[in-house]
Amino acid sequence: MQKDDVRVDVLDQELSISGERHAESERREGGFYRSERSYGSFRRSVALPEGAKPDTASARFENGVLEIEMPQPQQQSNVRHDVQIDG
Asked: Around 46, how many Cα atoms within 13 Å sit in the side-chain half-sphere?
């Protein structure tokens, strides 16, 4: 695959990777000719954790590998608060 065959979007806290595969091969051997073509679209979606900031995401496509980086959201500490009950 090539970089232009892949699209990365974020919508409603969901990271979506989509694209289309194109593969063709030809082979001549022993007086025979073989040609194969493979096409197909794909789409994968991943829910982002609460607090994720998609505007900080970056992507790199190298040697057929797509790498997406997004800083991890800050962990909120669980603080317990006592609430007085009247009555």
From this structure: 10
Q: Residue 47: pLDDT above 80?
A: yes
Residue 70, Cβ neighbours under 10 Å: how many?
A: 17
Return the structure tokens found at 5. Answer: 């065959």
pTM > 0.85: yes or no: no
Task: Quote the distance between the C-alpha of residue 86 and its chain's center.
Answer: 51
- Does residue 86 belong to any structural domain of this protein? no
Which CATH number covers residue 9?
2.60.40.790
Task: Tell me if 34 is assigned to some domain.
Answer: yes
For residues 29 and 8, give the distance between their C-alpha atoms in angstroms, rounded to a whole number: 40
Does position 87 have pLDDT exceeding 70, yes or no? Answer: no
Instruction: Give the range of the structural domain holding residue 39, as residue numbers without chain letter.
Output: 3-69
